[in-house]
Design goal:
Elements: E1 5-11, E2 14-21, E3 28-32, H1 46-51, E4 55-59, H2 78-92, E5 97-102, H3 104-115, E6 120-126, H4 131-140, H5 149-152, H6 155-160, H7 164-182, H8 187-196, H9 200-212, E7 228-233, H10 241-246, E8 255-260, H11 267-270, H12 272-283
Parallel strand pairs: 3-4, 3-5, 5-6, 6-7, 7-8
Antiparallel strand pairs: 1-2, 2-4
């Protein structure tokens, strides 16, 4: 199994922590994590991609890396976050690269592929529907099965509120533990993320992704023109089937949609071998 090597990515005034694996001359793959993960979320997937000959880098993103943690939500706009992704690739010397994202990292991957199609070789998104599909599903109301994306997304308003840090960190992060345990995350990963967010500063860095987001971010994003793989678990507590199925309408390229029956939101942690196999198959397509 390929070794994960620490790496620093100096971008502007910040230094992002990252881990790298695989041969330096391998085709480049960038892995973007979600909330409240970090590069550690890819610890089982990344070595498998590297073993197949890819050069794989997974950063701790803005707000998660201690030396890249601005305090204002205005420093977390989608334009700024996309700029980070492009800057990572530039620093690594990657003119084009394969892009993989989960949760918030998945949303960022959609935006990066839509805004910089010339940089993306292939796109693989885990859990997160295309932003336009998500918005449509959220506005649609309950589907025939009673599922309602607006209800599933109700936590976002809480995360955006000024009281969020106090609420989540209270009683030794009791609510945080409850949220992670109730969402299907395994005990080892949940404990790791709870330990990582022991301070208000760290929690604010992650929550600012929600505060910096704008519902209008999806406007004008345009179709995705890179070959795209989308993985979605049927037990995802936050992202429903309607948005997942509507995503196909936003891709004008070879598109593969894989439904993972019985799998939760936490695909990279729960079924890493399945995710790695499907991603590798996608990367290898001509």
């Amino acid at each position: 199994m390929s070794e994960l090597t620490p790496l620093e990515l100096p971008i502007g005034p910040y230094v992002f922590d990252a881990v790298a694996a695989g041969p330096t001359d391998g085709e480049p793959v960038l892995l973007l994590h979600g909330f409240p993960e970090g590069a550690w979320a890819w610890r089982f997937v990344q070595p498998q991609l590297a073993d197949a000959g890819y050069r794989v880098v997974a950063p701790d993103q803005r707000g998660y890396s201690p030396r890249a943690r601005p305090t204002e939500p205005s420093d977390f706009t989608i334009e700024t976050l996309v700029g980070d992704v492009v800057a990572f690739a530039d620093h690594l010397g990657w003119d084009t690269f394969h892009l993989v994202g989960h949760d918030w990292g998945g949303a960022l991957a959609w935006h990066t592929a839509g805004r910089h199609p010339e940089r993306i070789r292939t796109l693989s998104v885990v859990s997160t529907p295309h932003p336009v599909a998500f918005t449509r599903a959220k506005k649609a109301g309950p589907g025939p099965d009673g599922e309602d994306q607006a209800t599933k997304s109700g936590y976002i308003d809480t995360f955006r509120s000024p009281e969020a840090e106090d609420l989540i960190l209270a009683d030794d992060r009791a609510l945080f533990r409850l949220l992670l345990d109730g969402s299907g995350l395994d005990a080892e990963s949940a404990a790791h993320y709870v330990d990582r967010f022991a301070t208000r500063e760290a929690m604010s860095g992650a929550l600012n992704w929600y505060r910096g987001a704008d519902p209008a971010d999806a406007d004008g994003l345009g179709p995705i023109t890179a070959p795209t793989l989308y993985l979605w678990g049927t037990e995802d507590i936050a992202l429903g089937r309607m948005a997942a199925e509507l995503t196909a309408e936003q891709v004008e390229a070879p598109y593969r949609f894989e439904v993972l029956d019985g799998v939760s939101h936490w695909v990279p942690e729960e079924v890493p071998d399945v995710a790695a196999t499907m991603i590798l198959d996608h990367l290898a397509q001509p």
